[in-house]
Each structure stands twice: as structure tokens, then as C-alpha cells.
Amino acid sequence: TFDVSAPWLNRVIERKPRALLHAVDGVGFTIERGKTLALVGESGCGKSTVARLLVGLYEPTRGGLTFDGQDAHAAFKGKDARAMRRRIQMIFQDPYASLNPRWLVEDIIGEPLREHGLITDAAQLKKRVGELLQSVGLSPLDMAKYPHQFSGGQRQRISIARALATEPEFLVCDEPTSALDVSVQAQVLNIMKDLQRQRQLTYLFISHNLAVVRHVSDQVGVMYLGRLVELADKKVLFENPRHPYTRMLLDAIPKMHDTGRARTPVQGEVPNPLNPPPGCAFNPRCPYANDRCRTERPQLIDDGGTRVACHGVQEKRIPLVELAV
Ligand code: SF4
Ligand code: MG
């Protein structure tokens, strides 16, 4: 079997000069080959930090990361580093920033092929770049253009084609459609789903948008201030959300068939992730908070198939709500 797991129950800290930038703690999950795990949460919750850990850009200070049975962080540093970078690719939010504006598309997509020594012959390279463009619904003729000649959605397809060049097994997608118009988002998401089916790709999909997550994921992890607070199969999470924060996020999205109920905006401010409140970090915003919540940090515990970090859920004092969806 193939899995990607990040079973670190620990603290990951990225230090940059003068500032402590990122903290992720108590995050652990497994993604099966060919499936999508989505991580959701408001900005600053640590989603992108997890993404960067998975592609080896950050290193955990404790804990570990297993990729297909292999210690990924050891592999990122050792003689297997090149192979790991081939197998795990990342797609970023902003295709404007991630595509070199002075390069032709041919060179942008061809670069990983050259860098990894996969194709050196010029004619073969063109052929392969053409195939990659076709796989994302673009024309081989597009290779002779520059990024500014494309729309935002087309540019994101070019980044996907580039990410696919090394035939990766695992794609970490950090808000890949957030910069795009809603109609274009759906096109790009559908292409990603088709590619997943055709190539048995495994995705970690980062998004703040639950409507997008619902469209693409198999499992969903909800993050709050650097911690995973709920982890469940998509259907279970959307139909029976357990954590008060997950419910708050779900209440804030427009319903497909609006029942006339006013949607509730997400309440309150996200505290500073570097100085989270004691106990459950969500307690200042939670209608169910009690003294225990303000002092003791809840652990992520399995509760009928959903993993949830909430004293209220564990004490069964939060009403079970089946959302009409
Ligand atoms: Fe609310 Fe307490 Fe659960 Fe935190 S642990 S979400 S404060 S009920
Ligand atoms: Mg981010």
C-alpha cells in the first residue's frame, strides 16, 4: 500500500531572523494513493506550513513524515533527494508569481524535464511539452508563447503541466484556484480531478474555501491556529460536523438550496498564532467554552470515525446537529 502520513504530535517551528514565523502542532493524517485530503482553515492556521513540510521546504523539529513507507525528510536530504523532488510536486496559489515572465512556456514546462535529466533531446522535449499542454486542455502551439499571453486559468494549467512533467505521484496544491474567478475555478478543479483519475495522483489540497473542498476532497482536515481540530471523510464532515469551529465555517458558506435561513458569518478574530490562548485555542470564539476549555488543551481523539479535538464533544455536551445540506 501507498500512504503519506505525517504522524507528528509535536511542534514545528520555522525561525527566520528576528521572527518566529510558523508553528504547527498536533497534525497527523494519512492519505491513500489516488485520494485527496483537503486541509481547510482561515489564513494563519498553518495549512501552508504543512504543505511546505510535505515538499521538504521546511523541516520538522520533531516528529516525522512518511512517504510510501520511507522517511521523507531523511530522503529529501540524502542521496534520494532528487527522486523525492520528482515524486512530490507543488502547485501554488499564484500562477503569476510562479511562472517566470521572461520564459517561453516551452522552457517553463521543459525545465523540470531537463533538470531531472529526463529528456535532453530538443525534439523529444518539444513533443513531451506538447503532450503535457494537451493533458491540461491547452494546445501544443501554446509552448511558443509567454505567460502574459494567457488568462489566469490558463496560467494555472501551465503550472499544473509543469508540475506533472516529472510524473509525480503526490501533488501538494496550496490554494490552487483561489486567485481565479469562480467559473474558471471549476474548470481547473475538473482538470485536476480528471488528471487524478488518469494518473492515480494523490493530492493534499489546501483551501480556505469549503465549497471548493467539497468538490475535490475524499477526506477533510480542519485546522485552527496550527492544530488539526477535526479530521473526517468528506461526507461525514459536511453532514455531521462535530467541532464548533467546523460548524462555524460551514454556517458561513452559502447553501445550494437556501432554506431562507440567514447564513452566519464567521465570528470573532483569529488570535495571534504565535501566542494562542491557553487550553483550547478556539475558546474565545466558542459558544460552548467552559473552564476546562480555558485551561486544558483537547487532544485529537477518534469519536465514531471522526477525529475531533474538543472537550465539549468528548463530554457529549454539544448537541449533535445534522445539517440540512
Ligand atoms: Fe469549544 Fe471547549 Fe470544544 Fe474548544 S474544547 S471547541 S472551547 S467546547
Ligand atoms: Mg497560505
Q: Could you walk me through the main structural features you see in this protein, from its secondary elements to its overall organization?
A:
- Belongs to the ABC transporter superfamily.
- It holds the Pfam family ABC_tran.
- This is Oligopeptide/dipeptide ABC transporter, ATPase subunit.
- It is elongated, with a radius of gyration of 21 Å.
- It folds into two domains: 3-217, Rossmann fold (3-Layer(aba) Sandwich); 240-314, no CATH class.
- It has helices at residues 47-54, 72-77, 81-87, 95-98, 105-115, 122-135, 152-164, 182-199, 210-216, 234-239, 244-251, 291-295, 311-314, and strands spanning 3-5, 8-16, 19-27, 30-32, 36-40, 66-67, 70-71, 88-91, 170-174, 202-207, 219-224, 227-233, 301-303, 306-308.
- With 325 residues, the protein is an alpha/beta fold.
- Strands 8-9-10-5-11-12-14-13 form an eight-stranded mixed β-sheet, with helices on both faces.
- A hairpin with a 2-residue loop joins strand 11 (219-224) and strand 12 (227-233).
- It contains 13 helices and 14 strands.
- The longest helix has 18 residues, at 182-199.
- Mean pLDDT is 84; it is low at 6-21.
- Iron/sulfur cluster (SF4) binds next to helix 13.
Number of strands: 14
Unreliable segments of 5+ consecutive residues: 6-21
- The overall number of domains is 2
* CATH architecture classification of the largest domain: 3-Layer(aba) Sandwich
* Strand adjacency order, main sheet: 8-9-10-5-11-12-14-13
Structural class, by secondary structure, is alpha/beta
